[in-house]
Amino acid sequence: MSEPKSNERMEKIVSLCKRRGFIFQSSEIYGGINGFWDYGPLGAELKRNVKDYWWRSMTQRRDDVVGLEATIIMHPKIWEASGHTSTFSDPMVDCLLTKKRFRADQVDPQDGIIYFFTGGRDAATGKESPESYSVLLAAGKNPESARKVARQFYAARGVENAELQGERTEAVQGSTRYNPENGSLLTEPRPFNLMFKTYVGPVESEDNVAYLRPETAQAIFAQFSNVLAVARQKIPFGICQIGKAFRNEINPRNFIFRSREFEQMELEFFIKPDDAAAKSVNAGEPGTEPTWGWEQWHKYWVEERVKWYESIGLGRDVLDFHWQAKEELAHYARATVDILYKFPFGTQELEGIAARGNFDLSQHQKFSGKSMEYFDEETKSRFIPHVIEPSAGVDRLILALLCNAFNEEEVTDEKGNKETRVVLKFHPRIAPVKVGIFPLLKNKPELVKKALQVRDLLRDSMTVYYDDTGAIGRRYRRQDEAGTPYGVTIDFDTLGETPSLADTVTLRDRDTMKQERMAIADLLPFLLGKIR
User: Fold this and answer.
1) What are the structural domains, with CATH classification, of the chain?
2) Which of helix, strand or coil describes residue 377?
């Protein structure tokens, strides 16, 4: 069956997320709130599985990374030191007609004819508006459409039934000064700080201003000395965190890809400056890990992160990479690589791996007056560590996993009829539900009893779903849509109708739909081997 078109595919994924309980619009019963999303039963399991696996990969399976969980609201001077209060902004423009707000760098270039108006006079009262205004129409469109938009503009300023003055035209190509939705002129770009402001304490004064954190990294830098003192680590080592962050996006878009509330999985991996690494006396052979400079550590973490994505089903064939050019880099960064995923709406960033130098720790040392230096016993020198930062967005990763897993297949049902099977082919280790448990018939107490025993055998080790409603084929289809990789059916052979098959079950594979008999005693070790 041919793949649906990009926008059609995205619409189907969004619909499935609502229908099966992956993702809901926040506050939906009140009309929703733009840029905020809630995770339903399946979505919450999927998201938890991804975060738990990332955490295990970063901390439990490594000796050189420890964890942190910091508060969402921190001292406002942290954001002064990091530069967020002064530079963390996007260029914003407003439509002069509708007041709708856009990011200036996301307005699509347009070709067409600009209609200029020097003002409008009310035909009945003679009232005149001195404001000039212009409208962009695609070439060949009726000029009356531009006049209609202009009359709406002047009517909003008290000039009804405007007799427009001074109309002239100009052909343009690639203009970003007009609203692509209605052709209305936009305001000049101006900076818009993306941090959510709040107040700590009972008095709403400038002295009590605080911010919801726009990223999780700064807490790690601010707590660097404390973690170093208690974690018994030596550089190179890392501190990781998973947590909520908030950005007052001008134009949230593409479902959960860009939201105002989101989660990040970040690692700050602290390394020696190149000159200190080169002096390591216990380094072994030149070029081995103790002598690595920032470039080698940066490439190492890029490859580590790609291998992690492969381990949850996002292979290199669906990923892309963008090595930022010098003019794209943040002022403190030596290099940044963006790991991209090929979404239906375009190839977009999943994670950035940045070589940040020692900018952050240096800034916090300067603003707090507290030393962020590290004493290296090996080289008998002091230095402020440099850092490599892999930073991933949880929510956009969830969206990538949903897009990657979504499949529509034409299959034949048990009656020989053709039907479309919707299936989410999640990797078993991150699938929301690992196995569905199905008694063949719900009106046979002996089958139900055995099925419940199998459920109880597995549920302490993984998420299972028990379903005894409807034909067995329909139950399979429901779990296919949920992305459940395995189905276990308890039938009369399980009960010993065929003596050689007693205490065996039918194990169905989601992707191939093949079924095999397996002893109940072998189920748990088999499934654990697939989901870990």
Assistant:
1) 6-88+197-402 (3.30.930.10), 91-191 (no CATH), 433-531 (3.40.50.800)
2) coil
From 69-73, 76-80, 378-382, the region with the lowest mean pLDDT: 378-382
**Residue range 341-360, pLDDT digits in tens:** 999 999 999 999 999 999 99
pTM score, whole prediction? 0.85
Q: What mean pLDDT is predicted for residues 391-418?
A: 91
In the numeric block, the tokens 């048990």 are attached to 414
Structure tokens at 462: 């993984």
281, amino acid identity: V
> Closest Cα partner for 240 from 220, 267, 270, 271?
267
Average pLDDT, the chain: 92
- Predicted local confidence at residue 485, as pLDDT: 98
User: What are the tens digits of pLDDT across the range 137-178?
Assistant: 998 899 899 999 998 998 888 887 777 777 789 999 999 999
| 236: nearest Cα among 192, 276, 194, 195 | 276
Burial grade of 315 (CB within 10 A; 0-12, 13-18, 19 or more): exposed
**HEC letters along 478-516:** HHHHHCCCEEEEECCCCCCCCHHHCCEEEEEECCCCCEE
Q: What gap in Å lies between CA 510 and CA 512, rounded to an integer? A: 6
Quote the CA–CA distance of 416 and 412 in Å, as a whole number: 5
DSSP 119-158: EEEETTT--EE---EEEEE-TTS-HHHHHHHHHHHHHTTT
**Is residue 136 a contact partner of residue 113, using CB atoms and an 8 Å limit?**
yes
Q: Which two tokens stand for residue 83?
A: 């530069």
Rounded to the nearest 10°, the torsion over CA 271, 276, 281, 286 is 80
pLDDT confidence of residue 284: 52
- With CA atoms as reference, report the closest residue to 107 among 122, 94, 88, 117: 94
Instruction: At 393, list the tokens.
Output: 């967005």
Question: b or e along 124-155 (b: 16 or more beta carbons within 10 Å of the residue's beta carbon)?
Answer: eeeeebeeebbbbbeeeeeeeebbebbbebbe
**390: nearest Cα among 352, 357, 355:** 352
What are the tens digits of pLDDT across the range 81-109? 998 887 777 888 999 999 998 888 889 99
CA atoms within 13 A on the CB side of 51: 21
Residue with tokens 């970003």, as numbered in its chain: 176
